[in-house]
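Example for tutorial group B:
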């Protein structure tokens, strides 16, 4: 019986893996230029972390988590997102006592039991970052500019940036009251989830995907019109900062993020590209999350984006992320003795960081030449009894077909000189 992969997962084969690697490299370069260091946290954590950190009323926690008991009867969950784990790590590892802000980026697999559709998997890859310890909106601008720069380096410069503010603890209290007042007369018509949200977390009401709930949400009071002085001030700092860097944005007053912990600035980068429309990157500030997870009050801000979604976007724009490398040298061999000489030459050259290929399948000369052609090799040499005896062999430049005679014991040297 042939075994398939579980629904919502996939094998990443080498050509595609190369694309992941490229994205990771570009991302980590941009992050490093902004002073971020990499962090890796466990793929599974105590379930409690996500319940508290992401929010029990969110779809992610209430419907989409891979939760299980381990053999010691602990409730564990495969991480559905990256922020909660990084925050926990920030607290556990005493990073509060480091020079602030502490800036961390990550790339890794996340897990959500979701409907599988194009570009959406149950095991997926996210890249993202978190910055702790700065309450100033200037870091909001810096992070948005980092994302913008990352997209530019990928060759995408026409994404739409949406920003909004969803206030702080103080103004949220007032706003929640207003929201509940507004929703009161519609309660009976809301979906069952929204009925729970109404009492537990009214802000979530605005985020519901059910059609009828969306209709009600349309005329709900806007957070933007209910911000306190401090939040208004921060929001204008964000706008000015983006203007200063000439980064275009749109204010979207209905933008709320799907997770509970966000405060003040929230943002999304959206693609208008037909076929891949939708959010590519989402982030925002979370000034109460560190405290919520047991640390001391510390402001934070971050974002995340799905790499599979990003790859789809790049593909639809025909941006090629593969960087195929071909062997510099192929050594065709005839006989055991030739093979041992060739394998020594190959070993030496590989040590010098040069991609060399030799026959390890016992092919005949003709088949070896065919193989070298398929692999797009730059130079081919053939070594057999005669070549060993005379120390003379031919090197062929595959592109032009030109052949030259060289010494067998000079192959390495010549390749090193001409590898480019
Ligand atoms: Zn406020
Ligand atoms: Zn609803």
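The residue assignment follows.
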């Amino acid at each position: 019986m042939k075994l398939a992969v579980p629904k919502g997962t996939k094998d990443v084969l080498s050509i595609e893996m190369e694309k992941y690697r490229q994205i990771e490299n570009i991302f980590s370069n941009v992050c490093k230029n902004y002073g971020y260091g990499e962090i890796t946290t466990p793929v599974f954590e105590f379930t409690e972390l996500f319940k508290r950190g992401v929010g029990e009323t969110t779809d992610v926690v209430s419907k989409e988590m891979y939760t299980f008991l381990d053999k010691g009867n602990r409730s564990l969950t495969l991480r559905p997102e990256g922020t909660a784990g990084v925050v926990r790590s920030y607290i556990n590892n005493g990073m509060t006592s480091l020079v602030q802000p502490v800036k961390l980026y990550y790339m890794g697999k996340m897990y959500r039991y979701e409907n599988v559709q194009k570009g959406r998997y149950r095991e997926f890859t996210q890249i993202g970052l978190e910055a702790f310890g700065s309450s100033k909106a200037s870091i909001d601008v810096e992070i948005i500019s980092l994302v913008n720069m990352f997209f530019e380096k990928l060759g995408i410069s026409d994404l739409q940036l949406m920003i909004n503010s969803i206030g702080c603890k103080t103004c949220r209290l007032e706003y929640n009251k207003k929201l509940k007042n507004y929703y009161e007369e519609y309660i009976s018509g809301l979906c069952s989830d929204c009925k729970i949200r109404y009492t537990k977390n009214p802000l979530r009401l605005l985020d519901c995907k059910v059609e009828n709930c969306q209709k009600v949400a349309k005329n709900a009071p806007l957070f933007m019109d209910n911000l306190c002085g401090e939040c208004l001030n921060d929001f204008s700092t964000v706008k000015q900062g983006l203007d200063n860097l000439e980064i275009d944005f749109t204010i979207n007053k209905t933008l709320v993020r799907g997770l509970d912990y966000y405060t003040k600035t929230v943002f999304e980068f959206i693609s208008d590209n037909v076929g891949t429309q939708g959010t590519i990157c989402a982030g925002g500030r979370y000034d109460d999350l560190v405290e919520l997870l047991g640390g001391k009050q510390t402001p934070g801000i971050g974002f995340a984006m799905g790499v599979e979604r990003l790859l789809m976007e790049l593909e639809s724009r025909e941006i090629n992320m593969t960087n195929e490398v071909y062997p510099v040298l192929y050594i065709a061999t005839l006989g055991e003795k030739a093979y041992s000489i060739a394998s020594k030459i190959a070993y030496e050259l590989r040590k010098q960081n040069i991609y060399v290929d030799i026959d390890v399948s016992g092919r005949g000369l003709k088949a070896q030449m065919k193989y070298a052609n398929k692999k797009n090799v730059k130079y081919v040499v053939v070594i057999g009894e005669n070549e060993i005896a005379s120390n003379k062999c031919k090197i062929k430049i595959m592109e032009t077909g030109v052949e030259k005679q060289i010494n067998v014991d000079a192959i390495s040297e010549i390749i090193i000189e001409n590898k480019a």
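The mean pLDDT is 94. Compare this with the pattern of hydrophobic and polar residues in the output above.
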